[in-house]
Amino acid sequence: MNSRLPGFYRLPLEQRRQRIAAELGLDENAARQLSQVLLDETTADHMVENLIGVYGLPLGVGLNFRVNGRDHLVPMCVEEPSVIAAASHAAKLIRKSGGFFAEADDPIMIAQVQLCDVADADAARLAILRNAEELIALANCANRSLSDRGGGARSLTVRVLEPGMLVVHLHVDVRDAMGANVVNTMAEAIAEKLGQLSGGVVGLRILSNLADLRCVSVRAEVAFDDLAINEQSGETMADGIVRASRFAELDPYRAATHNKGIMNGVDAVALATGNDWRSIEAGAHAFAATQAGGGYRPLAIWRRNENTLQGTLRMPMAVGTVGGTLRVHPGARLGLRIADVSSSSELGMLMAAVGLATNFAALRAMLAEGIQRGHMSLHARSVALHAGATADLVERVADEMAAAGDVREERAIEILQRLRSAGTLSSPLASCNDR
Ligand code: MEV
């Protein structure tokens, strides 16, 4: 499979779908699904309470991604213009230097059991650690199917939070699941015994979203020669990106926005593959705030390395390729089919690569032309659409408004009327066929 599909964005929608289906070797059913509503009301009604409708978001495909020598088309579900194009462009530049290189920790999630009113915290801690083996066995009895799949509870630690309050961390290898259910079940299964051992009162029993034992790391390089843009040399651009990285390393106000640029990519894939993007967000920001050096840190940094710019990103990635939403949501299953990953670790590495790509693309765009120009032309498209433009007219109206730096609905209507009265376009359909 090749993720490099030149001219893809210029194809009419139906042909884009056909191209993706052919590239992935989708069977007729799966290919048909691409053009259908991906979540029906009956299914949605079983997913949440008080359902009144199904809310849509654009599903696009990120191109040019190569991770650890393997190509992937990336399903991306996002409402913000330019994220998918920017990710694809960044991946295209990075691909020239071999693509992304990623590693994933074992899929270990943490269950927390809070113990309160413990009279002797040190004695309680020792009692729990002495009984660790029995507690782990108890946890594993609560979910035998995980052990059958090669996962299960592995170890535990005890932390004293303040006099009288302890927290036990149970480390669980959840294999290809996101793991929330199994981890919560295990936390509940060992809670009573922990209460007895500590002589305290059991409080919360729940997973931690700071999944810092389940991190992914990704690295990418872009040669200076591929970084040049407009009048700026590649080396100048690289230095600008390193300075932007330092800015985020030194200032939490900038780090928050830098990380938002990463999450633009990560969340888009999380949504498209049915993963819990809120838990990934919570984990990412908690991780960013608990790293060596203190304060809130950027998840990705950029440095010069001989004649290349090198980016590295490390973050927790609690994602699943089985269970959860995937069981019920046909769109999530299709998203996973597009990503073509064989494990949750592989999905996590791909998501981190997309995050590094959107981070790089944002920094580059801000240094090259400012972020507003790109945003402006995409914003112009939605204004043109709202003003009633269809098919080719959308681009033409948007281009004219963006070029004039006047992106307003009244202006769009004016341009539309002029184009229509000049008979520029016979019918929207005709224009589609012309492409
Ligand atoms: C906008 O969605 C994301 C950026 O603000 C990220 C950044 O500033 O690095 C452009």
Report on the structure:
- The strands form three sheets. This protein has a four-stranded antiparallel β-sheet.
- Residues 425-435 have low confidence and may be disordered.
- The chain is an alpha+beta fold and 435 residues long.
- The protein is globular.
- It is built from 17 helices and ten strands.
- It has helices at residues 13-24, 28-33, 41-47, 83-95, 121-130, 132-141, 144-148, 180-198, 234-250, 252-272, 277-288, 330-339, 344-368, 371-386, 392-404, 409-421, 428-434; strands at 59-67, 70-77, 101-104, 108-116, 152-162, 165-173, 201-207, 215-223, 300-305, 308-316.
- It folds into three domains: 15-101 and 216-222 and 248-368, 3-hydroxy-3-methylglutaryl-coenzyme A Reductase, Chain A, domain 2 (Alpha-Beta Complex), CATH 3.90.770; 108-207, Hydroxymethylglutaryl-CoA reductase, class I/II, NAD/NADP-binding domain (Alpha-Beta Plaits, 2-Layer Sandwich), CATH 3.30.70; 375-422.
- (R)-mevalonate binds at residues 80, 257-258, 260-261, 264, 362-363, 371.
